Amino acid sequence: MIYTIKPISSFLLVLLSLWCFIAIKAEGKDLSTKKMVALLEPIEQHAIQYGEGDIKVYVFIDPKCPHSRDFISMIFENQKMRTIYRYHIYFYELKRFNSHFLIGAIYSAPSPLQRMLEVMVGKKEITSAQNSDVKIEEKIDDIKRVAEQIGVSKRPYLIVAKEWD
User: Residue 32: left (phi > 0), alpha (psi -120 to 50), or beta?
Assistant: First the structure.
């Protein structure tokens, strides 16, 4: 199998992908897409999946980041993108947004996808304090560890993988 970064039909997604790829090179993380996907595969069960497409897109976002919110809103509003791509969404906190509590609240919701859309698209405020579950903290730590290995520095951060047999 060969994994590669493939241009996305939406101009904005192409720019975001290029920005993310440049960020990887700028930080000295010269990882191939295949190596990045290999790092992500063990944590795929932690991803919030959105879309039914054949092309996997791994996305690191912060729920309070305005660019991440714009990205999720764009996917929400575009059925075609959800038909072509299958998004594996990981929450990775940008420290300046202090979003750890919100990330835990989304992951601990009965439907994390629904809660993510309520917060990021519907701008719902989560104010009730919920005790953080040990499993949720482990999930957040697993995602952080992989994000650091990949060199994720921006949000949203996209990795587009396409397989050929």
Answer: beta
Task: List, in sequence order, every residue forming a beta bridge with 161; answer none if it has no partner.
Answer: 56
> With pLDDT > 70 as the criterion, what percentage of the chain qualifies?
77
The tens digit of pLDDT for each residue in 46-91 reads: 999 999 999 999 999 999 999 999 999 999 999 999 999 999 999 9
- Spell out the domain ranges in the chain: 40-160
**Could you confirm whether domain 40-160 is CATH 3.40.50.1970?**
no
pTM, rounded to two decimals: 0.81
How is 134-160 classified by DSSP, letter by letter? HHHHHHHHHHHHHHHHHT--SSSEEEE
Amino acid, single-letter form, for residue 117: L
Distance in angstroms (rounded) separating the CA atoms of residues 162 and 57: 9
Structure tokens at 143: 């995602």
